[in-house]
Input
Amino acid sequence: MKIIMLGAPGAGKGTQAKKIAEKFGIPHISTGDIFRANIKEGTELGKKAKAFMDKGELVPDELTCDLVMDRISSDDCKNGFILDGFPRTIPQAEALSKALSAKGEKMDYAVDIEVNDEAIVERMGGRRACAVCGATFHLVNIPPKVEGHCDSCGGPLILRDDDKPETVRKRLEVYHDQTQPLIAYYEKEGILKQVDGMLPMEEVFNKIVQLTGE
Ligand code: AMP
Output
């Protein structure tokens, strides 16, 4: 099973992708997480990516595509994988499709989680991330067990730079401009599935499971 998660930043892609990965026993590949890990480790890639991420812009395709193609050719991706945050541009989608078709493969589903902009701004203002392990919470929807501390590692919870209101607005602009066209792209490919992301988290998950025919 090879799935792409589409949707605006804050639509719930990451939360759903983790649950789906667990259910189907496939790796969850988040380009945002890969970039953040590189930033934390202080790698060259991390330094380059941070400059774009902090401004709410996309990391250039040439820094993103090879990274994903390498990752999906690992052994643990043999039975499938779920992509969260990739592709985000038409050239990225074309690079993915080209790399897979060279192996006689293709993506099975592109799941688009639909949430309106107003709800996104509200959601992201309440999002908190662990400064140590990166786990995400929400002040209202997914509160940590102990206020201000991560459930997994106890680290302090912070508002990520890219979740700050001015950056969120920029990220939404970038989403509409560069990523939303992927909905039509995957519809044309015949693999698009749309889910109402305003529904409760558990219902969104059940719908995705139904849509993917499992
Ligand atoms: P995310 O955690 O998926 O919301 O990603 C956080 C940030 O990482 C984005 O706002 C982009 O700056 C960058 N990023 C993640 N995935 C991609 C991608 N596929 N292409 C370009 N930039 C990306």
Remarks:
- The first strand starts at residue 2 and ends at 7.
- The domain at 2-116+179-211 is CATH 3.40.50.300 (Rossmann fold).
